[in-house]
Amino acid sequence: SSSSAAPEVLLGFTGLAAGRGDSIQVPAGYTATAFVPWGTPLTGSLPPFADNGSNTGIEQEQQVGSHHDGIFFLAMDANVGGNNSEEGLLVMNHEYFDPDVLHANGPSLVNGKRPTDEVHKEVATHGVSVIHIKRTSGEWRVVEGSVFNRRITGATPMEIRGPAMGSAKMATKYSPSGTETRGTLNNCGSGLTPWNTYLAAEENWAGYFVNKDTTRPREHARYGVPSSNGRYSWEHAESGEDVYVRFDASTKGDHAHQDYRNEPNTFGWMVEIDPFRPESKPQKRTSLGRFGHEGVVFAPAVEGEPVVCYSGDDATYEYIYKFVSADNYHAATAGGHLLNHGVLYVARFDETGKGEWLPLDINDSGFVAKAAAAGVTFADQADVLINTRLAADIQGATKMDRPEWGTVHPQTGEVYFTLTNNSGRSTTDAANPRTNNTTGHIIRWREQADHTFEWDIFLLGGDVGTSTGDVTLTEANHFASPDGLWIDPRGVLWIQTDMSGSQQNAGPFGNNQMLAADPVTKEVRRFLIGPMDCEVTGVHTTPDLKTMFVNIQHPGDRSTPGNFTSHWPGGGTSRPRSATVIVTKNDGGIIGT
Ligand code: FEO
Ligand code: CA
Ligand code: CA
Ligand code: CA
After folding, report:
1. Which of 200, 220, 196, 193 is nearest to 208 (CA)?
2. FRET label pair with 437: which of 168, 233, 352, 366, CA 20 to 30 Å apart?
């Protein structure tokens, strides 16, 4: 059993009843404290957060971004094998923003133009924060002035690496050689590599762009690049600066002369960031494919064997992928270069409880034959990867109910993935067994030889009485729309939910929450409940498992200017702010016990 390595009981806390409310709830004997909310001064001149929404774009670039998501704590001595649990780098994603909360009076569109500083602030609130933190007298604080404190935004220069580097389809006016781009967007989940770097996922990036051409190329159309205007109309920034008009990828039209037709192709990747090297440029790892990356999770690295990681594409009827490096892992020399060469596979879940990994590889004769039979041509492996979804369609992968986070059990190697929901499903298969799947499920598999695996459904989400064979949900643990997922080193499976506002309103699940599960017994208890209209997403701990970091995203996301549906964490009449929550046990013990 997974608990054999640990003498203490796996789940020792008293679970919470579901609830609505505008505060964080944790079990008796635990304390939760908001930390580094959106707008916390981080770099440069440390501009203070203005609760009236008046911070400028330049100020936002020096502050923690909004919509906290995937998060990891890297011990300060991680690179020398240490486990410092008092000081480290907290690295987190900032997925997006609520226009009515970010700006003093909501967003403006004047004569079809966006005020440039509003656009600047919106781009700057995206991306990643690297935050040097230290625990002093029992309290976690930001180490102000640390060289490690860093903001990466939607405009930060980045390198393109792997097979799509230098492809003609990656060439832009900014980088005619197709080797660089600017920014990362809609960073949802994240992953930690075996060499202590951070991978930020680019999820719903397509909507930031526009392509007004009558015929959009497959690498835009298959991903839903809009045809009338970008989600926030950044392409209409009043200044007409290149960094904003690039979001118009049209061949003809206002910005045709800019030639950013390929700009959307430089998004949809996993971005590697080395938090311990603040001067290093982030690198987009194109080997891992281009889709709506929810996150990435690595199997434990084994000396002398390939690196293996998994990533889900969070859209209805999209797929789960696995990357296997061509080169073997050696701790002494491991680095991002291992992610530049290898094979990307996509999962087919068969009715028998078995499944197969299907290669998306132009050197694989079976794949090439299927493409030819489908009348599809790929110029090279870069073209395959830029069109990952199409390649997966051709292989006949299983269309899933929105794959979100994954996690690998540190002892058993079993892989767990959340499938958050798919209310539109009308025909089922064994791996997606419910029509109108409004509550989602968690699937798991065990790798077998010859690129096959054995799988089962770990848990179906749903109301009281929902049964997954050997376990039935109760008032103490019913849940819906599982999203964030992490198995801690003791083997506790932490499950986070992302129910929509209407699903939370309708009940019976209360606010979004985090539950803890025993992967062996399937005992599940509710551990944390978030404030109003938030999502609970991203969880990690210090190496001693005594400080837990949980992200609260978009509290009050149904707010309108001046009418906030949450005032968390500031209380009173304050603006709602995404924030990290630090959870500790009052007796100084291990979280979950
Ligand atoms: Fe950003 Fe799929 O959640
Ligand atoms: Ca998510
Ligand atoms: Ca989600
Ligand atoms: Ca979200």
Report:
1. 220
2. 352
Q: Which atom of ligand 1 is closest in space to residue 69's alpha carbon?
A: 1
Is residue 188 within 6 Å of ligand 1 at its C-beta?
A: yes
3-state helix, strand, coil in the chain (%, to 5): 15, 35, 55
pTM equals 0.97
For residue 188, report the distance from its CA to the centre of ligand 1, in Å: 5
Closest atom, ligand 1, to C-alpha of 498: 3
Q: CA nearest 533: which of 502, 579, 575?
A: 502
User: Measured between alpha carbons, how far is 15 from 44 in angstroms, rounded to an integer?
Assistant: 43
Ligand nearest to the CA of 203: 1
Which residue has its alpha carbon closest to ligand 1 atom 1? 188
| Contact in structure between 428 and 435 (CB atoms under 8 Å) | yes
Q: What is the pLDDT of residues 381-392, one digit of tens each?
A: 999 999 999 999
| 381 Cβ neighbours under 8 A, 6+ residues apart | 163, 361, 362, 363
- As given in the structure block, the two tokens for residue 38 are 């959106």
Q: State the Rg of the chain over Cα.
A: 23
Asked if the peptide bond before residue 508 counts as cis, ω within 30 degrees of 0, the response is yes
ipTM of this predicted structure: 0.97
Helices 365-373 and 388-395, interaxial angle, to 10°? 90
Q: Are 38 and 156 in contact (CB under 8 A)?
A: no
For ligand 1, is residue 557 a contact (CB within 6 Å)? Answer: no
Read off the tokens for 150: 């860093």
Collect residues with CB below 5 Å from ion ligand 3: 483, 498
CB of 235 within 6 A of ligand 1: the answer is no
Whether 95 lines ligand 1, by a CB cut-off of 6 Å, is yes
Q: Are 62 and 153 in contact (CB under 8 A)?
A: no
Q: Can you tell me the distance from the alpha carbon of 429 to that of 435, in angstroms, rounded to the nearest whole number?
A: 10
Q: Which helix (H) or strand (E) holds 123?
A: helix 116-125
Does the beta carbon of 318 lie inside 6 Å of ligand 1? no
Q: Is the C-beta atom of 404 inside 6 A of ligand 1?
A: yes
CA gap 410, 6 in Å, rounded: 13
Which parts of the chain have pLDDT scores under 50? 1-4, 6
- How deeply is 124 buried, as exposed, middle or buried, from its count of CB atoms within 10 A (0-12, 13-18, 19+)? buried
- Beta carbon of 180 within 6 Å of any ligand 1 atom: no
Q: In terms of Cα–Cα distance, which of 247, 239, 242 is closest to 116? A: 239
Peptide bond into 482 cis (omega under 30): no
